[in-house]
Design a protein that fits this description.
Length: 402
């Protein structure tokens, strides 16, 4: 999984002037990344369910970037398939008067995830060493006299590292992602927002004024990464000029993080297992002979109490992949084609699973009912890839800057 060259863990220095924001890794086009992207979402969903069930460790994913770098789109696409029970996003704006009356980390404590949960920080305490540094907001803070001669920003780097080390040592990982977009690409996205009436609300005069401080922000981002990267709480610098690659790379980072945690469903002790068998016997009695026979007709895997529906769906998917890989790929492309038409705006994991599980015959029947001709089942994977590419190109102008 190619993410190591984007990772900064305290030893390697980050030089923002030499970083290629147009990098797309091993891929030369968007459609080449589709298979891996969908697979990553499936694995992330599976691991998050186990994380929530195990309740041993919490995770924070921090996102920082310049305006229009694509934070909202990345968060929407990579995390939208996860259960809302165990995931929560926090968008931190300009601090309120009450928040400013406390230390700069105070307002983030209430957003820390319980064990088993994921918190997404859409901007974070790092704003205080970014915009706070560029505009020197700290100079207007009311502080004790003993603090007036201190190097506020340098102190904050140390305090942030101490804060993140404390979280790691008490059961919460902090993974930090900097979406690095170029100044020219930001300009193109601003222009697209101005030219598209439904996106006008996304642009303000303040956004344009901040571009005047671009060099100062680049220095602040570079120093932030170099001063606060640690092995336990690394920074990942993600090339963000191509949104599809940024989303893929973030899905890799999230997947790798959860795989390193390696959560497991909690095992049951013998007493609990025995109790479950007693409950099972009582439930069978309540069904009666006829009801129990009907229950026995259900697929055996559904009767396994250790599996939850999404987990079982993924096991079925893997089994189908082993049995008929080429056929499943074609069905997978059908699902992906639908997703790409919405620019990776995936509503739920079940949408992916249901679409992949559809057979060509079922799709053909549906198409005939609607008076449409379905030629997808006769297409080769290469032809379907080409069709995906055409759909992406047709929709990119309208949706890629969302």
């Amino acid at each position: 999984m190619g993410i190591s060259r984007y990772a900064y863990k305290g030893k390697r220095r980050f030089d923002i002037s030499t970083f290629d924001t147009e990098d797309t890794g091993e891929f030369t086009s968007r459609d080449q990344s589709v298979d891996e992207f969908v697979e990553n979402l499936l694995v992330i969903n599976k691991k998050q369910q186990k994380l929530y069930s195990e309740r041993k460790e919490g995770v924070i994913f921090v996102f920082q970037a310049m305006d229009a770098a694509g934070k909202d789109g990345v968060i929407r696409t990579v995390f939208s398939t996860l259960s809302p029970h165990g995931v929560k996003e926090f968008c931190f704006k300009v601090p309120s008067a009450e928040e400013k009356s406390h230390d700069f980390l105070w307002r983030f404590w209430s957003a820390l995830p319980p064990r088993g949960f994921i918190s997404i920080f859409n901007r974070s305490y790092y704003e205080d060493v970014l915009v706070g540094k560029v505009h020197e907001f700290y100079k207007s803070d009311i502080v004790p006299d003993r603090m007036k001669d201190s190097d506020v920003i340098q102190d904050r780097y140390r305090q942030i590292k101490d804060f993140e080390r404390y979280l790691y040592e008490t059961g919460t990982r902090v993974i930090k992602i900097f979406l690095n977009v170029s100044k020219d690409e930001q300009a193109r996205r601003f222009i697209s927002r101005i030219d598209t009436p439904r996106k006008n609300w996304k642009v303000s005069s303040g956004d344009l004024r901040e571009r005047e401080y671009w060099d100062a922000y680049m220095e602040a981002f570079e120093t932030m990464v170099n001063e606060t990267s640690t092995p336990e709480s690394p920074w990942y610098v993600v090339p963000a000029d191509h949104k599809w690659f940024a989303r893929l790379l973030v899905s890799r980072i999230v997947r790798k993080t959860l795989e390193e945690i390696d959560p497991q469903y909690p095992p049951l002790d013998e007493a609990t297992k025995s109790s479950l068998q007693e409950y099972r016997a009582k439930l069978i009695d309540s069904l009666g002979e006829k009801g129990y026979r009907e229950q026995e007709k259900q697929p055996k895997e559904y009767s396994d109490p250790s599996l939850i529906p999404a987990e079982m769906l993924q096991q079925e998917l893997l089994q189908k992949q082993a049995e008929s890989d080429e056929k499943l790929k074609e069905n997978g492309f059908k699902a992906v084609r639908k997703l790409l038409a919405e620019n990776y705006m995936i509503r739920s994991l079940n949408d992916i699973m249901d679409a992949i599980a559809e057979t060509p015959a079922e799709e053909k029947e549906e198409a005939e009912e609607e008076g449409e001709e379905d030629d997808e089942s006769t297409r080769s994977p290469a032809e379907i890839r080409e069709h995906i590419k055409e759909i992406v190109e047709d929709n990119e102008k309208e949706t890629d800057n969302a």
